[in-house]
Amino acid sequence: MMSDRIGRVLLTTAALVVTLTTVGVSSAMATPKGEYAVFAQCPVSNIEVTGCLVARTESGEIKIGSQAVPISKTQTLQAGLINRGFGDKEVVAAANGETLSKTPQKVPGGLLDLVRCNEIKGNGFLEKLARGACELVFENNTTGVNAVTELAAPASSIGLSELALELEEGTALSLPVKVKLENSLLGSECYIGSTAKPITLALTTGTSGTLKGKLGEISERAEGGVLVIKNNTLVSSTFTAPEATGCGGIFSFLIDPIVNAKLGLPATTGNTAVLNGTLEQASAELVKESEA
Predict the structure, then answer these.
(1) Which of 120, 162, 156, 160 is nearest to 137 (CA)?
(2) 181 partner at 20 to 30 Å CA-CA among 116, 128, 134, 144?
(3) Does residue 249 contact residue 191 with C-beta atoms inside 8 Å?
(4) For residue 104, cis peptide bond before it (omega within 30 degrees of 0)
(5) Per-residue DSSP letters for 215-282?
(6) What residues contact 102, with CB distance under 8 A and at least 6 apart?
(7) Beta strand 51-64 with 75-83: parallel, antiparallel or unpaired?
C-alpha cells in the first residue's frame, strides 16, 4: 500500500535524534545534502513539521474563461507538512517564503489577442493617452503576455490529502491562487483573482468532469528515505474565475472591460486545469539528519 510507504517516509521515530549544528557551522547555515538537497526550503526548524514536500508541475494546461495557457516552464510547490490525521496534512510555508514559485507561462497570441488599440474608445484626455500608450507598445513589439500563477492566501490555506491522492478520489490538493497577466501596457497589478476572491483549484488524481487524473508511478530513493511519484496528473474542472482587475494601471477603467470581454470573465463554467509532474516527500528528521 502507498500509505505504508508514506508512513515509513514521513513519520518520525524517537530513535532519530539529530544535532543541527556542527563544529564551526551555525544551524542557520545548515542545508540538506545529497539525496535530500531538493528539500532545502523545507522549514525543518519548525518542531511541528514532520514531513517535507516538493511538487513540480512540468507540463499541462490551465484554461480560464476562453483562454488556455500551456505550462511550458516547471512550477514548483515546496513546503513543510504537519500530520493532522487520516492522511490530511497542514501545509507550512517554505523557509524562503516562496511556497509556490512565480513562474511565467507564455499566453498564446499575447496582447494582440487581448487588446487592440482601436478598442479603447472615447475622445477624452485619458482615452487618447491610453490609445497612445497602446500604440507605443505595439510599435515597440512588446506585445508578449505572460501568465504567472501565484498563491492568493497563506500556505496554511493549502489543503493536502494523501488519502485522496492515493485513492484517486476526492480533492487531493486545494490550491487558492490568483493569475497575474504581465505586459508593459497591462501594468504591474493586472490580476485574475485576488486574496479576497481567489481562484480555488480543487485538484484530484481522480475524475473531474471530463478530465481524468492519475496517481502516477511510485518509487523510492535514498534507501527508501524519499518517496517519489512520477507522471502524476492532477485535474480540476469545478473552479470559477472572477473578472480581471487592475489592468492598465490608471487606464484600468478602459482596459479591464476589454480584457474581460476577450477572456469571457467572470466565468463560472468551462475553466480547467491539468497539471502533470513529479512529487517528492521525505521525513523532516531525515532531511535534518542529512545536514550534519
Answers:
(1) 120
(2) 128
(3) no
(4) no
(5) --EEEEETTTTEEEEEEEEEEE----B--EESTTGGGHHHHHHHHHHHHT-SBSSS-EEEEEEEEEEE
(6) 148, 149, 150
(7) antiparallel
Q: How many H helices and E strands in the chain?
A: 5, 16
C-beta of residue 9 within 8 angstroms of C-beta of residue 223 = no
Q: Is the pTM of this model over 0.85?
A: yes
pLDDT tens per residue across span 230-279: 999 999 999 999 999 999 999 999 999 999 999 999 999 999 999 999 99
CA–CA separation, 79 and 68 (whole Å): 28
**pLDDT at residue 240, as a whole number:** 98
Q: Does residue 85 register a pLDDT over 50?
A: yes
Q: What whole-number distance in Å separates Cα of residue 83 and Cα of residue 287? A: 17
Grid coordinates representing 259 are: 480584457
- Parse the chain into domains and list their residue ranges: 2-289
Per-residue pLDDT tens over the stretch 25-58: 334 457 999 999 999 999 999 999 999 999 999 9
